[in-house]
Amino acid sequence: MEKTTLYLPKSLKRLLELKARREGRSQAELVREALERYLASPPPKSLGIGEDTEVTGRTAEAWEKD
């Protein structure tokens, strides 16, 4: 393993400390696990912008008026 340094807001650091203590695990272990989950998750889906070829500026304006 390689060592790295993270700068965390005080509130996040405190939550990490509490969770580590509560679960009897190291802070490093919790951070590694969180990063692994985050990096393995798929990217967020599109909000739909640009996906509907039937919607034009003119039809969107009409939709907003309804």
Structure summarized in a few sentences:
With 66 residues, the protein is an all-alpha fold.
What do these coordinates show?
It is a single chain. With 66 residues, the chain is mainly α. It has a domain at 9-41. It is built from three helices and no strands. The chain has helices at 10-23, 27-40, 57-65. The N and C termini lie far apart (59 Å).
Provide the succession of SSEs: HHH
Percent strand = under 5%
Q: Main beta sheet: strand number and arrangement?
A: none
Rg from alpha-carbon coordinates: 22 Å
Low-confidence stretches are none
So what's the oligomer here?
Answer: single chain
What is the β-strand count? 0
* Mean pLDDT score: 84
Structural class: mainly alpha
Mass-distribution shape: elongated
SS element count, helices? 3
Helix proportion: 55-70%
- Ends: how far apart? 59 Å
Keywords:
66 residues; mainly alpha; 56% helix; elongated
List the helices and strands and how they pair.
Layout (H helix, E strand, L loop, with lengths): L9 H14 L3 H14 L16 H9 L1
